[in-house]
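Reading a protein record of the kind used here takes little practice once its layout is understood. The reader may check this reading against the record printed directly beneath this paragraph.
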Amino acid sequence: MVALTFDDGPNIQLTIPVLEKLEQYDVKATFYVLAAAINDTTGPMLQRMVDQGCEIGLHGLTHELMTNFTSEQNTRRHLKACDVISGWIEGGYQIKTLRPPGGSCNSRVTRGAKDAGLAVIIWSVDTLDWYTQNVEKIMDVVKKETKNGAIILCHDHHKPTLDVLDEMIPWLLEQGYDLVTVSELLESTGQPLEPGKVYFSKESND
């Protein structure tokens, strides 16, 4: 199993096309969303994520480094952001995981997450899609670094990331991987996610 993740959305141009690709290949992903990116246009995308069996995680109230805030400030911001997200989903939605912007993490981040009931999710495969914006280079990283239990970092606001999915998803499936949500991946160990704990993959976490 591997978990494909997308940060920084929801995005007006690309989040729906990414969801369409996931639906086409009948796979799931986890979207780490920003409350600040949610509006009347992007908000309905959250319901579609849930309807497709994808997971929604929190990327923050805004895209500011959480290491710059106290743990108490982080907790308040997380709870506010989770309320914004939940409000767009029928019946509400319980967010289990947090990905801090940039993967920047310290004790203020982990404590803030713990008090908000969120596990901290980093990654084990960084596609650098935001940097290279090149399909071939993204695939090189995925092929070299992906192994069982991997958490793969992508962003749903760059066109090459959308384009690479027609190569990446079939390749992962051909290697025998099931593409599941982060929670499904980590909870497949038989242990529930632990709020405040930092996870990098299924097999390697602190």
Remarks:
- The mean pLDDT is 97.
- The helical segments are 15-25, 43-51, 71-86, 107-115, 129-132, 135-145, 159-174, 182-187.
- The beta strands are 2-9, 30-34, 55-60, 97-98, 119-121, 125-126, 151-155, 179-180, 198-199.
